[in-house]
Amino acid sequence: xxxxxxxxxxxxxxxxxxxxxxxxxxxxxxxxxxxxxxxxxxxxxxxxxxxxxxxxxxxxxxxxxxxxxxxxxxxxxxxxxxxxxxxxxxxxxxxxxxxxxxxxxxxxxxxxxxxxxxxxxxxxxxxxxxxxxxxxxxxxxxxxxxxxxxxxxxxxxxxxxxxxxxxxxxxxxxxxxxxxxxxxxxxxxxxxxxxxxxxxxxxxxxxxxxxxxxxxxxxxxxxxxxxxxxxxxxxxxxxxxxxxxxxxxxxxxxxxxxxxxxxxxxxxxxxxxxxxxxxxxxxxxxxxxxxxxxxxxxxxxxxxxxxxxxxxxxxxxxxxxxxxxxxxxxxxxxxxxxxxxxxxxxxxxxxxxxxxxxxxxxxxxxxxxxxxxxxxxxxxxxxxxxxxxxxxxxxxxxxxxxxxxxxxxxxxxxxxxxxxxxxxxxxxxxxxxxxxxxxxxxxxxxxx
Length: 448
Ligand code: FAD
Description:
By secondary structure, the chain is an alpha/beta fold. The protein has helices at 16-25, 53-62, 64-73, 124-132, 185-191, 215-220, 265-269, 293-303, 331-334, 343-358, 367-396, 407-422, 426-446, and strands spanning 7-12, 31-36, 48-49, 75-76, 88-95, 111-117, 120-123, 140-141, 146-154, 158-165, 170-173, 175-178, 201-214, 231-235, 241-246, 251-258, 309-314, 322-323, 326-328. The strands form 4 sheets. It has a 7-stranded mixed beta sheet with strand order 6-5-14-15-16-13-17, with helices on both faces. A 6-stranded mixed beta sheet has the order 8-2-1-12-19-18. The site of flavin-adenine dinucleotide has 35 residues, from α1, β13, α9 and α10.
């Protein structure tokens, strides 16, 4: 006889992965969900996300209200309002250096990414606020920083996952899903603290700089007007320069990524200190003196405010995304460099698969089969995206063989990469995961 009590799930981390998953799972009466988030409240960190088609498909699978929460906060790229929702837009790639440089207003991009109708961008803080509004307040606890996790056998209900927070309080659940970001504590539990893939790495030593200014300030500083309405990425050998319009087109997130500039060896070989290592490091505009004037105007803008600067890392491949009744998702499982613009999209794909599987998990004894199916389907694809994002960085910085010498090769690279990330059949991904879980159920019933 199975238990009729709801299966309780603790989600650690209330970022994009944790809140999107919670917003979907909360609708299932056979589940009891609680989100534990370390910060006391989300703050506006200003990062702009340009979500690609697979992110939107994943949100639609998570539920119309999840998709709507995003639509309510996003702006149309290119129009600045919501009236041209059907206009086709893409991230546009330009050369900003060398013989193929073409960033002037009348030029065509060398390649494009993520072409879609109604392409939008959203600030991370806005998206989090929208997702949070879908989860009842008493189901989210802020100021709860996970420090420890362990599993125990409970004589009454079987296995339980126990956890402890920095404030000394403890909790327990049938299942823990770790969406606690790149420095995940849950990852440490799953892989072991000494595992070589436990901590983020900085293979190409990328240092990124980001600032947010009003669109007026950007134009006054000489930024091409059309770059305040599109998502341009301007390439060159020191690294790339990009812009994302924010807040209904009134503000602009401008960024510069410098390859080889993150010199913090400690965070390469050992635990990265935090995402702000290198914070406030000045940006050497001289590195960009051979870039086009349009690119240099963006670099100049970013150099004025380097308070938001950090070494970006990613994860080497984890051999597994779950153990027992504990799993990880989002950046906790597969943090990637931001250059393929698909980290949040992969986090949302994870959430869509877990949501689909947990629709069928009516008893705690079924959790491991669900997590095994999730691991089998999501690990290969999300890790391929981590590898791809590294390659994006190197192509952007003219460091991937001689690809940059031939615009045709650059175009082909982005076309194929875009097909892999954005055009994936997510319904099929959900179905594949479900059939793996059902197979595992059948195997277990055959074995008694
Ligand atoms: P996070 O958003 O990092 O959330 C983790 C949460 O867990 C946080 O709220 C954190 O406070 C909490 N937490 C951490 N530790 C603990 C703990 N011990 N206990 C409890 N809670 C904890 N992706 C795209 O798809 N498109 C883009 O255009 C894009 N642009 C990007 C630009 C930049 C500059 C960067 C850095 C990333 C970009 N990404 C983009 C990637 C995207 O932001 C991440 O992949 C995404 O935010 C991952 O979501 P997450 O929920 O897994 O992790």
